[in-house]
Amino acid sequence: MTSPTPAVRKIIHIDMDAFYASVEQRDDPRLRGLPVAVGGAAARGVVAAASYEARRFGVHSAMPSVTARRKCPALIFIRPRFEVYRAISGQIRAILLDYTDLVEPLSLDEAYLDVTADKRGIGSATRIAGEIRARIKAETGLTASAGVSYNKFLAKLASDHRKPDGLFVITPDQGAGFVETLDIAKFHGIGPATARRMHQFGIRSGLDLRGAELGFLQRHFGKAGSHYHNIARGIDERRVTADRPRKSISAENTFADDLHALPAAAAELAPLADKVWAYCGKTGTRGRTVTLKVKFSDFRQQTRSRTQALPIAGRDELLVQGTRLLEPLFPVRRGIRLLGLGISSIAEAAGEDAAPQLGLSL
């Protein structure tokens, strides 16, 4: 007796187009058609998002503001309004939940949906994606791109394929062929460092990756080797998981001038503790691990963590633990340009002493 053929899943990836920058252009008509960057314009600022007009000059997210300004002298910097972005994200998520409860937010501006059994009985994932895009446009005035496929990896690739304001479908018989033509640097989950390492082994395309033996990939890329072996063949068995629990909460700050003394650095931890605990207090989130992130003037980065038996009880305890992690770093050889403070081990902390983690809205 042969086993039944598993049902083909219907996965959609929704990705808002230049979300933060598009919101600012929507709310201020004077910005429309102009190169806009959401982020800090100061010397040590970073671009959080760039409009498509800015991207034509090579400006992109995570780029230092100084570099962005050099590439595009006419670039307009706008301070981020995260409360506005979160509210719009909530509107979008409400639309997605009209079609399925299996919505997995990845950030404020993107999510996966499993519509194999959709609430409205539409049956066609392509039609559902089209409806969602039309409703987002009508209800928020913003555009979204959508990718439709039979797994998460390909749906993500598909949504990137016709950005902005696009819809692209990769069917089961097209998956492996679509992957083999791509540069591995365009694979979701393969970052620049991994791509460079693959290049050293002569792996530059999906076809090259498919030609690499499983054992070879596991030896050189560890546990990720099996995943790379599968996606090169258009295979991805990961499920869409609704309301993924958040693994950590953190805040960080880049300073206009490097910090060299412990008292000055310790003082900068206080506003970070305020931000982290404000979120914890609002959501009931608790965690047992405190992590300190330090980036020095030469961009070398160091993290230090401490885990305790019981969840962090309050903002003051978080600050004390962060300061204890900071103290052994002094005296420093190079100035500190960035400090970050966070809480993790959240899932383990949930219970009578910690309220359940709330899902973030898309």
Descriptive account of the structure:
- The protein is of the alpha+beta class.
- The protein folds into three domains: about 5-170, Alpha-Beta Plaits; about 175-230, DNA polymerase, domain 1 (Orthogonal Bundle); about 250-350, Dna Ligase, domain 1.
- Helices cover about 40% and strands about 20% of the residues.
- The protein is built from 14 helices and twelve strands.
- The protein has helices at about 20-25, 50-55, 65-70, 80-95, 125-140, 150-160, 175-180, 190-200, 205-210, 215-220, 225-230, 260-285, 315-325, 345-350, and strands at about 10-15, 35-40, 45-50, 75-80, 105, 110-115, 145-150, 165-170, 250-260, 290-295, 300-305, 335-345.
- The strands form three sheets. Strands 5-6-1-7-8 form a five-stranded mixed beta sheet.
- Strand 2 and strand 3 form a beta hairpin.
- The longest helix is centred in the last third of the chain and has 22 residues, at about 260-285.
- The model is unreliable at about 1-5 and about 345-360 (pLDDT under 50).
Short précis:
It holds the Pfam family IMS_C. Helices cover about 40% and strands about 20% of the residues. The chain is of the alpha+beta class.
List the helices and strands and how they pair.
Layout: E1 11-16, H1 19-27, E2 36-39, E3 47-50, H2 52-55, H3 65-71, E4 76-78, H4 82-97, E5 103-107, E6 110-114, H5 125-140, E7 144-149, H6 152-161, E8 167-169, H7 175-180, H8 192-200, H9 206-211, H10 214-221, H11 224-231, E9 248-259, H12 262-283, E10 289-296, E11 301-307, H13 315-326, E12 336-344, H14 346-349
Parallel strand pairs: 2-4, 7-8
Antiparallel strand pairs: 1-6, 1-7, 2-3, 5-6, 9-12, 10-11, 10-12
Helix pairs in contact: 4-5, 10-11, 12-13
Main location: cytoplasm
InterPro entries: DNA/RNA_pol_sf, DNA_pol_Y-fam_lit_finger_sf, DNA_pol_Y-fam_little_finger, DNA_polymerase-Y, DNApol_IV, IMS_HHH_1, Rev_trsase/Diguanyl_cyclase, UmuC
Keywords: Cytoplasm, DNA damage, DNA repair, DNA replication, DNA-binding, DNA-directed DNA polymerase, Magnesium, Metal-binding, Mutator protein, Nucleotidyltransferase, Transferase
